[in-house]
Amino acid sequence: MPDPLPQVRQLTLRAAATGAVLGMVLVPCNVYSGLKIGWSFNMSIAAALLSCGFWNATRRVAGPERIAHWGMLENNINQTCASSAASIISAGLVAPIPALTILTGQTLSWPVLSAWLFSVSLIGVVVGLILRRQMLEVQALPFPSGVATAETVREIYAAGREAAIRLRGLMTAGLLAAAVKLLPTAPWGPAIGLGPVGAPMLSTRGLGLMLDPSLLMIGFGAIVGLRVGVSLLLGAAIAWGVIAPWLFATGRLPAPASPDEGVFLAAVEFLLWPGVAMMVAAALTSFAASIPRVLRGIGSAAPEDPVEGAREGVAPRWLIAGMALATVLAVAAQVCFFEIHPAMALLSVLMTFLLAVVAARVSGETGIPPIGALGKVTQITFGLIHPTSVGTNLMTANVTGGAAGQCSDLLHDLKAGRLLGASVRAQAVAQVLGVIVGSLAGSAAYLLLVPDPAAMLLTPEWPAPAVATWKAVAELFRDGIDAAPRGAMPAAVIGTVVGVLLAALDQWRPKRARRWRPSAVSMGLAFVIPAYYCLSLFFGAAIAAVALRISPRWAQRLTLPIAAGLVAGESLAGVGGALWSMLWKIGGE
Questions:
Q1: Residue 321: what are its φ and ψ, rounded to 5°?
Q2: Beta bridge partners of 211
Q3: Pick from 164-168, 409-413, 418-422, 547-551: least confident
Q4: Is the pLDDT of residue 158 over 80?
Q5: Most CB within 10 Å of its CB: which of 34, 179, 400, 492?
Q6: What does the pLDDT read at residue 2?
């Protein structure tokens, strides 16, 4: 690992400001996509490319004597801050917070929501700093996203034209996606009647088996890969091509007024039960399988240089003070904002410290933080302790999931910084700044996009699958199984069995065969989002796979920037459209 270079500028005012501004711009993208399909995008590479493009252009215009070179370590601080801000959605913006509003009617003002996001995320930052030495130096876990970020930043600075090529791809894709979003487009496809298969009241158009012009979905498909894309296609075929027609044909659901009328809202009331069961069972099975590795890993190795980590790490007294402050803030926020009993609030924080270790280990090995699974562990725990309290069930789990997400994001950033020779302390400051910026900007974007979650979410426009998952678990404990639609519980049992079996298969060797096994989480997701989203995601994954086969070199360089541009372009256009509508409404009044 390169030694930290104190003489090289790192935590400069412009690095922090650039990261903060890019964080404010990029966090709405993740809020938008999270409410659409329940996924978010790591914005580290996008932030690194955008900052390079901006400062290089500014230096050419103003002159090198006025603008200093935008250095690699400054860029690392920028991407740390921006990715921290963009990952704020793991603190509950696209899952437990809207689920709470739908179930209880409680809404949070912008200051309260910002304070809540900050208190939850601060726990993750503190835990990440505490675990840094064990995870990065002692066990030397790979943290794939951090490695990818470091390699990309190195390539940008090693090859003069590399940044320009990637940035051009990102910006072109972003402008194209924004233009398509602003056009009056809609899913399209032939309306084929299903009379020959016993469902004359339905057509393929009504079931959503169409093509969607959303380039955001194409971009996400390219990012998640062919295995996930095929799993989504398979799940959509089962859910919307088999189960939904059967529900209407057998009279379990009332027939629509016409075959072409959309049936998403009616069908998803049933389909979310097997879909959510499949996702939760698979996530918890994978989580359980990771525990032995975590236990084996703790204390399994000794650091080669015990002095090195202390030299650049955060002092223990600051970590202890940070842990105490984060605990007090998280407990106080739960008690004040949601009237959770102090003992329950403290228990949730203590569970979070424990489960964050698992999250860090799993994320370090796979690159995927098990936010949903850890949230379900807490939901189930508090559902058994206090089953009738929806607020306790959702918001204690919010603490666990949010902290796990921010902890994993920090460790990936610290991995990138370690490979680049960056200062841990400087990155810690940048991460906290990103949390502050993300809390403010993320809550504003959420309130702007969905001012009425109960009316707007769980619809074809905003499927919000993560909200559906958290809401279903809370309702199950509050209302019992009798509240489920007729036949939903047997379907949920089948979904659970499928989720457990597929997740268990993922643990088997050889790993090479894993790419051909369906992903239970992706299949379950297809049950709770429109079928045309699944088709677009599959097409994006297929296009990326074909590009990789035809031209591996160019695909490896440009797939991620172009996909990031498609995601960011449509998201920002959607946020801009919502802002324009709000201002137009205010002006009309």
A1: -65, -40
A2: 188
A3: 164-168
A4: no
A5: 400
A6: 47
Task: Name 194's bridge partners.
Answer: 199
First to last CA, the chain: 60
- Rounded (5°) CA angle 503-509-515: 60
Alpha-carbon dihedral sign for residues 44, 50, 54, 56: positive
**Residue 203: DSSP 8-state:** E
Smallest CA-to-CA distance from 39 within 397, 527, 434, 537 is with: 537
Quick check: 284 pLDDT over 60?
A: yes
Residue 142, classed as helix, strand or coil, is: coil
Element (H, E) at 200: strand 199-203
DSSP-derived pairing of the beta strands 193-194 and 199-203: antiparallel
Distance between CA 426 and CA 435 in Å, rounded? 14
DSSP states along 15-46: HHHHHHHHHHHHHHHHHHHHHHHS-----HHH
- Provide the token pair at 189: 């496809």
Taking each helix axis as running N to C, give the angle between helix 13-37 and helix 215-224, from 0 to 180 degrees, rounded to the nearest 10: 100
Phi, psi of 194 (to 5 degrees): -105, 25
Report the 3 state secondary structure along 295-360.
HHHCCCCCCCCHHHHHHHCCCHHHHHHHHHHHHHHHHHHHHHHHCCCHHHHHHHHHHHHHHHHHHH
548: helix, coil or strand?
Answer: helix
Instruction: Give yes or no for a contact between 192 and 203, defined as CB atoms under 8 angstroms apart.
Output: yes
Greater confidence, 514 or 435? 435
Helix (H) or strand (E) holding 204: none
Return all residues near 503 (Cβ < 8 A) that are at least 6 apart: 281, 282, 283, 285, 286, 289, 520
Residue 368: burial class (beta carbons within 10 Å; 0-12, 13-18, 19+):
middle
Kindly indicate the confidence band of residue 164, based on its pLDDT and cuts at 50, 70 and 90.
Answer: confident
Six token digits for residue 61: 């215009």
List, for residues 337-375, the tens digit of each pLDDT value: 999 999 999 999 998 888 887 778 777 766 667 677 677
Q: What is the pLDDT of residues 91-125, one digit of tens each?
A: 889 989 999 999 999 999 999 999 999 999 999 99
Cα angle for residues 269, 185, 172 (degrees, 5° grid): 115
**For 69-143, where are the alpha helices, taking DSSP H only?**
72-86, 96-104, 110-132
Question: What pairs with residue 193 in β-bridges?
Answer: 203
Q: How many residues does the chain have?
A: 589
What does the radius of gyration of the chain's CA atoms come to, in whole angstroms? 23
> How far, in Å, CA of 173 to CA of 168, rounded?
8
**CA distances, 449 to each of 102, 216, 477 (Å):** 15, 16, 29
| Nearest-angstrom CA–CA distance, 105 and 107 | 6
Residue-wise burial string across 546-585, b where 16 or more C-beta atoms lie within 10 A, e elsewhere: ebbeeeeeebebbbbbbbbbbbbbbbbbbbeebeeeeeee
Distance of alpha carbon 460 from alpha carbon 206, whole angstroms: 12
